[in-house]
Amino acid sequence: MSAASVEQPFDADEPFSLTAIADEIMERHPGYRVEIIGGHLLVTPSPDAPHAFVLTDLMVPFLAAGLHSHESKVAQNVAIKLPTGAEDYCIPDLVVVDADIDDHHMENNAYDPVCFRLVLEVTSTNWRDDLKTKVGAYAEAKVPVHVVVDRKHQRLHVLTDPDGSEYTSHRVHAPGESVTLPDSVGAEVVLDVEQIVRAGQKKSD
């Protein structure tokens, strides 16, 4: 899911909490998602229906592979604590996590990145954040597999081997390809790029 950076003027002499501001934004704008990356607020409006359809289609191969079990869980909108700042966190569209994730709960309903096997984002209007800002953040959190469904360019990105603020392996897949995700996810998961991309297209596109 994409996001727009929000910067507001603050009195430099008075401490403020980005988390408190994020909570206030979500309270005033129900349905919006607010994340904090590198000390910046990223605010995302409610996604459209095709965005949700992509996630539904994606759940199928993950569940069929048995990843929602006693060893791992498949879920949507679970916050991951980021090492990029004291208050930083992100809310991926879809995740595969260790089943003991509750033991890794941190502040603000975010969880330690150590229990995340995969994070997945589906782009919306501001797709650049998903293809750049969040990629660097997830790499720094050492999430082993990061997948991006690029609805704008109708491609699927699979990033692995995080090193610092980037992934050393970045493969781009087009419709017509089948993609087998790395074994580190916990099971063999094969994604049909054409099916996923088609689900994310609006009828007017």
Describe the structure.
The protein has 205 residues and is α+β, with helices and mostly antiparallel strands. It has helices spanning 18-28, 49-64, 127-140, 193-199; strands spanning 4-6, 33-37, 40-44, 72-75, 79-81, 89-90, 94-98, 110-111, 116-122, 145-150, 155-163, 166-173, 178-180, 190-192. The protein has a 6-stranded mixed beta sheet. Strands 1-3-2 form a 3-stranded antiparallel beta sheet, with helices on both faces. Helix 2 packs antiparallel against helix 4.
What's the overall geometry?
A: globular
Low-confidence stretches: 1-11
Trace the largest sheet across and list its strands: 4-7-9-10-11-12
- Termini, distance in Å? 18 Å
Q: Please state the average pLDDT score.
A: 88
Largest sheet composition = 6 strands, mixed
Beta percentage is 25-35%
Residues in helices, as a percent range = 10-25%
Q: Total number of helical segments?
A: 4
Topology at a glance:
Blueprint: E1 4-6, H1 18-28, E2 33-37, E3 40-44, H2 49-64, E4 72-75, E5 79-81, E6 89-90, E7 94-98, E8 110-111, E9 116-122, H3 127-140, E10 145-150, E11 155-163, E12 166-173, E13 178-180, E14 190-192, H4 193-199
Parallel strand pairs: 5-8, 9-10
Antiparallel strand pairs: 1-3, 2-3, 4-7, 5-6, 7-9, 10-11, 11-12, 13-14
What is this structure, in a nutshell?
The chain is built from 4 helices and 14 strands. By secondary structure, it is of the alpha+beta class.
List keywords for this structure.
205 residues; 4 helices; six-stranded mixed sheet; globular; alpha+beta; three-stranded antiparallel sheet; disordered N terminus
